[in-house]
Amino acid sequence: MREQRPSFRSSRVVARLFLLLWGLFVLTTSFTFSNRGDGIAFASAAAKTNAAATSSEKDPDGTVAFATTFGKNASKNALFDAILSSVKRSSSEKEFETNLKLLRRRLHERPELMWTETETSALIKKELDALSISYEDAAKPGILATIALDGDMDVSKKSSKNKIAVLLRADMDALPVTEETEFEFKSKNEGKMHACGHDGHVTMLLGAAKLIKGILESGKEIIPEEVRKGKVVYLLFQPAEEGGAGAKKMLESKTMRNMKLKPSTSFALHNWPYVETPSGSFGTRGGTIMAGAGTFEITVTGKGGHAAVPHKNIDAVVCGSKIVTDVQTIVSRKASALDSVVITISTFHAGTVSNVMPDEAKLTGTLRSLQPETFRWAIDELSRVAKAVGIANGCEVEVSFASREVYPPTVNDAKAAEFAKRVAREIFGKEEGKVLDVDPVMPAEDFSFFANEYPSVMNWIGSYNEAIGAVHPLHSAKYTLDESILKNGAAAHAGYALGFLAMNSTQF
Ligand SMILES: [Zn+2]
Ligand SMILES: [Zn+2]
Prior knowledge:
Strand order of the largest sheet: 1-2-4-3-5-16-6-15
Distance between the termini: 60 Å
Structural class: alpha/beta
Strand content: 15-25%
Radius of gyration: 29 Å
Bound molecules: zinc ion
Shape: elongated
Number of strands: 16
Helix content: 40-55%
Order of helices and strands: HHHHEEEHHEHHEEEEEHHEEEHEEHEHEH
């Protein structure tokens, strides 16, 4: 007991001392933080007046060395601002906009279906040649073009410290749709139409190539030499998005497997002609933006015979019908209510005449989910349930996802999405309604394969415009692309790539 008293007293002393020290710490840190705030504001304001001139100190390796962390951020932010305003300025030139429209119309007239985009590919190569941009075939007719900011195309020789690459992607295939518009430049290829606006996507990426080359050739004022060193922009023109998994095939191609410098991030735009994203707006989100999708085929084999004696046969129609209803319980009873799963049986074919029980029933459908894990689980569960129903009814059941490639959900990297929005605010405007946080959607995109490979971001470029009749949904025979979005799309691509490279880091 006696010994405890002084110990109690001393612990109170310790507690007071601790409180005193804590108070001092809080005072000091709040002073430091407020100081830091002023420091950034001051540095970036100063840097803004002198664009990139602040990034002048070099270390022996040739990389930019900055005096302080604050100075480094301020310089990077100033460089970002200078690049984005230059991109915006160049994209606003009338001639640039006119050329984009002409190019888009040329592509629109000649739509080609997946894996046959040869004329499109040739036109892209011609445009790249005109801009002196080198390229390679990747999953033909796919193209991987490369712009080395320092002009040195030997990527392997670049100092590892400086090597950073960004990938910009455009898809280029059309759909088997007969165009029902009255435009002079409507499809000249019977039964084929750019009804998803991929002609616009190609145009925007070629526009970005022109903007990037223009900035690089305009002198070293905007992007200084030390920032250009080792930096690469890949322009990827992808075939077969509409069900052919062109993205996956490109990643598997020799050209992309042998890439000496892997992209640190990739970026794509899809025009979005829906009322919530009017022309002039931009939308994206971190996390899943598009669902995963799988097309399946179920074959139910029973034993055919006279329709009047079912006990002598095995009824594939009844078994198939039970599969239709039982797979619905995967969504309603097995998946969490917080997850999203769609399973739709879209076709059911069996039999030819009313008095004959058929041997076989064939069902096809689509399975979709926003969560990668739920998506994989639902694919397995669909097979399990269908086969179990087959066993219970004496039928053989085969489930196949092979007729069309399965597209996983497109999951945007949270930091890449934030960066894309930062870029978009400079291009589309800072006012309310210009840069939007959007909800995920159930259509799928094979950009998901790139997103699984690199931290990526898929974005909507708003293209709904009642004034010009751009109100029809994607894939509609009346679909109309608002061409006024092309210049901003080109600027967003160029701004994302150059803005990211200006940060001089492989991470956001
Ligand atoms: Zn489409
Ligand atoms: Zn599309």
